[in-house]
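Let us work through a complete example step by step.
Step 1: write down the sequence.
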Amino acid sequence: MAEISTEPAVRVLLVDDDPMVCSGLRMILDRGSGGRVEVVGAVGDGAEAVGAVQRHHPDVVLMDVRMPRMDGITATRMVRDLPSPPEVVVLTTFDSDDEPFRAAAAGANGFLLKTESPEDLVAHVIAVAAGEGAVSKRTAKQFMQHVRLDRSSRWRAARAAVGTLTPRQREVAGHVAAGLSNVEIAQRLYVSPSTVKTQLASIQSKLDVTNRVMIAVMVTQAAAN
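Step 2: predict the structure and record it as tokens.
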């Protein structure tokens, strides 16, 4: 049984055109989080996402990619353009090589498979709400394999940008790309989580990105041959 939390619940909005998926996610998050997460609403298309965010004021939106009227990438961009927007986590099967990059560029701060374990799903939603982002170990390898397939000019720009990082910053960024959390990175480097958070802020500034996922994308592109 999940431990009951005394902290305010993370408010989650579900955006997915599959009622069965929404039902399963609601059950996992509402019943399996011990009160740490609350599903405040669910809509079946990206076109409804902005209105739902304005009604429900979620902390995190779990966004499907492929929906009938408006895809999740377009909806993510619109949600992230709102004043004081929620974080967006894309639920993906990685069917398209370009999907992860486009979603990250649109402002998604996490990528999770729909087959994530309930425990991992809850943990990553909470991490994203806290500003940490989510590229889980389970999804990191698959995500990075798809990013490495990009052979456009983007990887050259990424290599130049990553070259401006200090050795320690490159080390931190590499751990992000591997799916480590701030706490895990801190343990690896024998520093405090607050130090890791400060390093990540500097990395984002140097790479001119706004989230953890784009750090992972750029580090992986820079390493591609």
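Step 3: interpret the result. The longest strand covers residues 37-43.
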